[in-house]
Design a protein that fits this description.
The structure is a single chain. This protein is of the alpha/beta class. The protein is built from 12 helices and 10 strands. A 6-stranded mixed β-sheet has the order 1-2-10-7-8-9, sandwiched between helices. The chain has a 4-stranded parallel β-sheet with strand order 5-4-3-6, with helices on both faces. The protein binds pyridoxal-5'-phosphate. Pyridoxal-5'-phosphate (PLP) binds at residues 42, 44, 70, 167-173, 230-231, 233, 276, 278-279, 304-305.
């Protein structure tokens, strides 16, 4: 199911098959996929493994990528393993923990004065000369993130859950999961697609707005400050595809407020899940969805990134008792 021709080209830390833990939220059973336990600390390793394997298979040894942090960390780590040189473009204000991680893997860090879109534009320029190993554009990344769906189904006894609750910035996890569930459906391994609940932050919710108002074009929004900066993507380049995927599963979009993200972070950490603030946005979305939905569905959600990346920010956000 993974489009790498020769096994010798596989670049991997033997990652994946993260634990799917049965747990309780608001008195309802929820399966929690612990993707904060990946080698570089986020689910982006799923995509990076396949993308960098493909880069190796194509005989490319020089790549560029842009990221607010975690995708850059993942690409840098797998490039390091494959001995591929990479430039990672990041906005000036990225979290220092993630920047240190990217540099530590030996990637060339290119800090761009400006926001996330400025970093993307700088990478696009550089991509005229070098291969663009972009998690947002490059389809091979999605062929990695689709393993989320394969693992969830295998862990549930080769059945699809009723509902999955996933974050959406660029939608790499959501689109990958959609691809994966569709492939399993086509192969007659599962009988239905789960309903996709897509979580955006209120501070930057272009797809939520397009969904709610049934717009043909994704509105341009101004990204406001949020602790969940990893999903604050004002111009998701696969926006239309994401909308189509969520609609095809009869799912919906919802948004969470900054205060709800802080609350979800406190709650998650106090239960032993040390996640980064961006990951807490999905858990805030889970709470919102649970408060307005029937309780008899089998529900899967995900912890997308580790708190070990952003200790300073977590320390500032959480009110210690
Ligand atoms: C990348 C990321 C997201 C959002 O994923 P998209 O592919 O942008 O939708 C959510 N949480 C964490 C921790 C991430 O690193």
């Amino acid at each position: 199911m993974i489009p790498i021709e020769d096994e010798e080209n596989i670049v991997s830390f033997d990652e994946g098959f993260t634990p799917l833990l049965e747990t309780e939220f608001n008195g309802k059973t929820v399966f929690l996929k612990q993707d904060h336990l990946f080698p570089t600390g986020s689910f982006k390793d799923r995509g990076a493994s396949v993308l960098i394997s493909k880069v190796k298979e194509l005989g490319i040894d020089d790549i560029v990528e842009d990221s607010s942090g975690n995708a850059g960390c993942a690409i840098a780590a797998y490039a390091a393993k494959a001995n591929i040189r990479c430039d990672i473009f990041v906005p000036q204000k990225s979290s220092t923990g993630k920047l240190a991680q990217i540099k530590a893997y030996g990637a060339h860090l290119r800090q761009i004065n400006g926001d996330r879109e400025d970093a993307a534009n700088a990478a696009l320029q550089a991509a005229k000369q070098e291969y663009y190993a972009s998690h947002a554009w490059n389809p091979f990344f999605l062929h990695g993130t689709k393993t989320f769906a394969f693992e969830v189904c295998e862990q549930l006894g080769w059945e699809a859950p009723d509902t999955v609750i996933l974050p959406v910035g660029n939608g790499t996890l959501l689109l990958g999961a959609y691809l994966g569930f569709k492939e399993l459906l086509k192969a007659d391994i599962i009988k239905k697609l789960p309903k996709f609940i897509a979580v955006q932050v209120e501070a930057c919710a272009p797809l939520y707005l397009a969904f709610k108002k049934d717009l043909k074009v994704i509105p341009s929004v101004e990204s406001k400050a949020t602790p969940a900066d990893g999903i604050a993507i004002a111009q998701p380049i696969r926006g239309k595809q994401i909308l189509e995927a969520v609609r095809a599963t009869e799912g919906l979009f919802l948004t969470v407020k900054n205060a709800e993200i802080t609350q979800a972070l406190e709650e998650s950490c106090s239960q032993g899940y040390y996640i980064e603030p961006t990951a807490a946005a999905t858990i805030a979305g889970l709470h919102k969805y649970l408060s307005q939905s029937p309780s008899d569905q089998e529900l899967v959600t995900v912890l997308t990134g580790s708190g070990l990346k952003t200790p300073q920010k977590i320390g500032d956000m959480i009110q210690f008792k």
